[in-house]
Amino acid sequence: MDMRIESFHKQIRSYIFYLENVKGLAKHTLRNYQVDLVMFYRFLVKKKEPLYNKSSLRNYLLYLHLQKMAKKTVARRLSTIKDYSRFLYKKKMLDRDFTQDIEHPKVEKRVPMILTVEEVKRLLDEPDTKTLMGVRDKTILEVLYSSGLRVEELVNLSRESLFLKEGIVRVVGKGSYERLLPLTSEAVNWLKIYLNHPERFQNSKKHKKECDHKAIFLNKWGKRLTVRSVARLFKFYKKKTSIAKNITPHTLRHSVATHWLENGMNVKMIQELLGHKSLSTTTIYTSVSQGLKTTVYANTHPLEVNE
Predict the structure, then answer these.
(1) 202 and 250 fall within a common domain
(2) 250, 259, 297, 301: which is the annotated catalytic residue?
(3) Which domain holds residue 36?
(4) Domain for residue 302, yes or no?
(5) Rounded to the nearest 10 degrees, how much is the dihedral formed by the CA atoms of 299, 297, 117, 174?
(6) pTM for the whole thing?
(7) Which of these is catalytic: 77, 224, 253, 259?
(8) pLDDT tens column, 161-206
(9) Domain count across the chain
(10) Residue 275: band (very low, low, confident or very high) from pLDDT cuts 50, 70, 90
(11) Measured in Å, how far apart are the chain's first and last C-alpha atoms?
């Protein structure tokens, strides 16, 4: 094997090990980092560019631009490469950080898609709760809207994460950051029904009995549900509701955050509930709600405030 290839793969393994065991990143995030670096390396090999070189990186960014890649994707790939370069430099695998002074492309923050409260209610009412899978789907929707979980956080929940008597769920988010989140009474009720459903512990033509005794949400094989499976569920229920919006698990997260804001919760509290590192990430919801803008205007404009 080419020494350069062998060295690169060794360095990537070391970096991914660090991300997983020190920073505690989730598996899907680790895959994204790895793919970003492999794609960068393939470009360098194909174009016969130097491996760790500022000029090579600029050429790669130009190549991505010419490929009409979305700015958000380019920014993510550059962030990965920058973090990787800093890691190699700190570990003395490089004598300099070759990404220094390379600026990120400016990415406009897109306003997230939001469901109205009425649309959320329509979505929550869709699952057929006469079946085990329908009860599962109903519980998933209730928990997501209850606490604003990321879908990765949802599928990683285990029985030990729940404190139903107190109405609390313990979530491990990005960077292994732990949060204790409140659950609505409806979410608690459906979790109890689903976890104790007799069909959960029986084999049938439509599903296998529980195999993973720790996982909360199971697939038809009795094993832990995956992120991809939850995404498919949302596509299915979007068609059933005929709501003319793109509905994903993250849509519910955006929606509940906006509804919290509209009902008077302060932005700092929402930041803590959602697990955002930066407050600026949370404040985007203030630009989403026309109702909030109108209320704030009416409560603050000197000619609108009731005396």
Answers:
(1) yes
(2) 250
(3) 3-90
(4) no
(5) -100
(6) 0.68
(7) 253
(8) 999 999 999 998 776 778 899 999 999 999 999 999 999 999 999 9
(9) 2
(10) confident
(11) 80
* Complete DSSP assignment for 58-109: HHHHHHHHHTT--HHHHHHHHHHHHHHHHHHHHTTSSSS-TTTTPPPPP-PP
The CATH number covering residue 283 comes to 1.10.443.10
Q: Which of 138, 207, 224, 276 is catalytic?
A: 276
Do residues 147 and 182 touch, judged by C-beta distance below 8 A?
Answer: yes
92 is catalytic: no
Q: Are residues 85 and 123 in the same domain?
A: no
Distances in whole angstroms, Cα of residue 25 to Cα of each of 82, 97, 175: 17, 23, 5
Model pLDDT, residue 296? 47
- CA 120, CA 104: separation in Å to the nearest integer? 36
Same domain, 161 and 207: yes
Any idea how long the chain is? 307
Residue 72 catalytic? no
- On whether both 141 and 46 belong to a single domain, the answer is no
Question: Is 213 annotated as catalytic?
Answer: no
